[in-house]
Every structure is written in C-alpha cells, then in structure tokens.
Automatic annotation (TrEMBL):
Biased composition (Polar residues): 61-75
Highest taxon of the lineage: Bacteria
Protein name: Cold-shock protein
InterPro entries: NA-bd_OB-fold (IPR012340)
Annotated stretches, region: Disordered: 1-92
Length: 92
C-alpha cells in the first residue's frame, strides 16, 4: 500500500533524505536508490508517494518514492490515441 508524505530534507552529497508521513508518525529515511526517478532530486516540501520496509537496523525506511503529480502527466485515457486526446482545431 502506498503512503504519502512530504520531503523534510535531502542531502545530494550524501544521497539521502527524510520524509514526514502525512498520516503522522516518525520521519522515515530514504536513499537516492529508493527514488523511482533518480534523476529528479527531491526538494523540501514536495509531496511523494512511497512504500515502507524494515531496514537492517530494524527501523522503518521509505522506498519506491515517486511524485504522484508526475504519474498523471502525459497519460492518455484508455482507448484513445495521443493524437485523439488533443482538442481538434477547426479550419474555416
């Protein structure tokens, strides 16, 4: 099940950061490898979806982080071609 939270911080030099769950609870850590889009650097306050797993130290950690807004961009409704999704222009 995907949870959602906001990025508290991200250190690009270390390649790690923390996310605060929207539902409350302890802040979760994550690493660059946990980002589904590694090229996109998370910024403080951005909303991300994530899964959780238990790390080797026994603490819960965020994994499979993704931005829900980006997941909706570029999607074409089922059964339509991308050319059909754009409004047609009448020439007159």
């Amino acid at each position: 099940m995907t949870d959602f939270g906001k990025i508290k911080n991200y250190d690009r030099n270390k390649g790690s950061g923390t996310i605060a769950p929207e539902k409350g609870g302890e802040t979760l850590s994550f690493g660059k490898g946990d980002l589904q889009q590694e090229a996109a650097e998370p910024r403080q306050g951005q909303r991300y979806g994530y899964d959780t797993r238990k790390a080797d130290d026994g603490k819960m950690q965020a994994t499979n982080l993704h931005q829900p807004e980006q997941a909706q961009q570029g999607k074409v409704p089922s059964g339509q071609d991308s050319k059909d999704a754009e409004p047609s222009q009448q020439q007159g």
